[in-house]
Amino acid sequence: MRIRLLIFFSFLVISNVKAQQDSTKATLTLAAMYNSNINYYGQVTPEKYPYVLFNATLRFPNGLYFSGGGYKLLNYGSTISETDLSIGYDYDFNEKFTAGLAYTHSFFPSNSPLLQASNNNNINASASYQWPWFKTDLSVDLAFGKQTDGFISFGNSKEIELGTVFNEKNLISITPAIEITAGTTHFYETYIIEKNKRQNSNGNGKGKSDTAPGIVNGNTTEVVENSVNQFKLLSYNFKLPLNWSNGNFLAEASYQFSILGNRKEENVKHQQSFFGLAVYYQF
Asked: What residue spans of 168-251 are helical by DSSP H?
């Protein structure tokens, strides 16, 4: 949702807005987003969790930036579902090659139903290269907290300008992208354990154990594989964001189709669709 929960595309769009500004000045970008379901490196839970997200990013001309925000699940709980603080640095080696390093700390409530709740720290290293016809992005993440996991995401995207509306400032574009994500899944152990505890406390579970790999949940036995240490494919992601920009303002409608490569629960569909709306404004 980079905020490694603000989602990778959030920073891509913010960068596009930034390009419209004087690069010698500090900028503040405010963002608000809705998405039909939350995912963690392509992985989802059996329950769908639509959410709204708010974020503010202060970026300095030397590439240093600070970011803070949070999101609320629309169908779970009455309080904020997550808040986060980030610090990062991006460096443009030239017009084509950019690299960055960032750290994010997230705060989750104790009863969080989210997969990522066990990994509340994230160190991200990223690089992008603009080829003549498309852009290549590589992102490496170390997520740690109660568990420790590593992830690699590799993708290619192409920004296509569709033209202007009303005047030259109203630009419409699409940025189709293909992304592959791989990683470890220690976070799933904690998710299953905490899910079992919540259901038992509500009187809905018949769990006999709070430890992996085997946990009985109602009439279903959910097995956490012993192979969580293995680095494996997590998802193929196909993204199609439609952007409309007008000066400092940018709006986005997006669709993402994911094919899960590391299916953990039998009642999670192998194909997933995500719909999103977002607005950004830069001062």
From this structure: 187-201
Q: Name the H helices within 19-100.
A: none
| Cis check: omega of the bond before 87, within 30 degrees of 0 | no
Q: For 14, phi and psi rounded to 5 degrees? A: -60, -40
- CA 257 to chain centroid, in Å, comes to 14
Distance (Å, whole) CA 159 – CA 176: 7
Question: How many C-beta atoms surround the C-beta of residue 149 within 10 A?
Answer: 23
Helix, strand, or coil here: 189? helix
Per domain, the residue ranges of the chain are 27-201+227-282
Nearest to 123 by CA among 156, 149, 97: 149
Averaged pLDDT, 24-28: 90
Task: Give dist(CA 151, CA 139) in Å, integer.
Answer: 8
User: Number of helices (H) and strands (E), helices first, in the chain?
Assistant: 2, 16
* Chain centroid to CA 83: 14
State the chain's mean pLDDT as an integer.
Answer: 84
CA 128 – CA 194 distance, rounded (Å): 37
* Model confidence pLDDT, tens digit, residues 95-128: 999 999 999 999 999 888 999 999 999 999 999 9
Q: Specify the CATH architecture of the domain 27-201+227-282.
A: Beta Barrel (2.40)
Torsion of CA 222, 224, 225, 231, to 10 degrees: 130
Closest among 23, 8, 31 to 92, alpha carbons compared: 23
- Between CA 229 and CA 223 the distance in angstroms is 15
pLDDT band at 152 (very low <50, low <70, confident <90, very high): very high
Q: What is the pTM of this model?
A: 0.84
Task: Single out the residue of 169, 173, 172 nearest to residue 159, CA to CA.
Answer: 173
